[in-house]
User: Fold these one by one.
Assistant:
Number 1:
Amino acid sequence: ETGVTQSPTHLIKTRGQQVTLRCSSQSGHNTVSWYQQALGQGPQFIFQYYREEENGRGNFPPRFSGLQFPNYSSELNVNALELDDSALYLCASSTPGQGPTEAFFGQGTRLTVV
Amino acid sequence: GQQVMQIPQYQHVQEGEDFTTYCNSSTTLSNIQWYKQRPGGHPVFLIQLVKSGEVKKQKRLTFQFGEAKKNSSLHITATQTTDVGTYFCASEAGAGNMLTFGGGTRLMVKP
């Protein structure tokens, strides 16, 4: 186990609704990244938070937003859900170092938009 | 932006056969990481390679980073049913561990 926990594990929402997904990072990790993984594809980087600030963003529209809290846990919010938002949402925690660092992934939240 | 392509998409092997997945980029990569995702699971870190021409081994797994740092491979010797899953390469784009993943190679092993 990585120590990264996500909730909920599964979720069904209706098109147009809003959703909030949560992630608790591994102890000692101050960086949380969110990824979207569509069925049969590799994870796509959404954004990253470092010390409560957005530290980088992938090619996702503004209706994807996030937060990081002082305890380094994080939320991913998606507004105006679309059918194509159905995917596995993964968060990964890490600690920046002087070189590339290993990402520890949570088990993911499976979002289905109907 | 940076893209990494992975081949093949799928591979069926008989237990005991070898398996290789390849990761290619048109641009020089600063590093490469490999992850394994079991069916229904999440990506689990296997290894990272940083140096040109680097080769690392983990039991039956051999990882290589090309001399030009534009390609990488993962080779599994004598596959077992426990090797089943999807293998992803990923590279860090920019600072702070923002990963660009390949599309993955799904390995299926027939007992």
Number 2:
Amino acid sequence: KAGVTQTPRYLIKTRGQQVTLSCSPISGHRSVSWYQQTPGQGLQFLFEYFSETQRNKGNFPGRFSGRQFSNSRSEMNVSTLELGDSALYLCASSLMGGLTLGYGYTFGSGTRLTVV
Amino acid sequence: AQTVTQSQPEMSVQEAETVTLSCTYDTSESNYYLFWYKQPPSRQMILVIRQEAYKQQNATENRFSVNFQKAAKSFSLKISDSQLGDTAMYFCAFMGHTGANSKLTFGKGITLSVRP
């Protein structure tokens, strides 16, 4: 079956702009999580959505937001981009999320965002 | 809050040999999950192995096995018969057992190079 699909793969934006990243989970998976990966901070949890509801949130400013649609696809939005937002953004899907870790989390290949 | 520490930034191993990657963590929870993820240059995070804290038996997946020492809060990964395709970054990760803890906390990662 198809894996986790993230689009676009690469993105270049200017400071002050906003950006929307997309994640299509594995068919049947209802939990979608987002992570930011940078060389300095490593992998940091942004938020998790389950059945269209945000279930968990990391320590990021309000400029970072997300949503999940009824088909479990998720989008992540960053407004008023800063240079420090340059990172690899990874999406992970799971059948139910933290409660059924027997299935684990499957990651996508990420979106590389560069802010100039 | 949970923390995950990978103190070795880089390691190198000869093809066909065995290598062990170290990871320690800190938590006040009694039940949780531990993971090793592999991130090759393709950027996709791939689940290597998973360990449930309440299971005393160490997890094994083909050439990959863990040494889980709950009292010492240590979770090392052993790769036997190393192959060139094992070259990647390896991340140790922690997840709590409750639904509210549906996020992965990652270590900084270790770059493993397998030499031909």
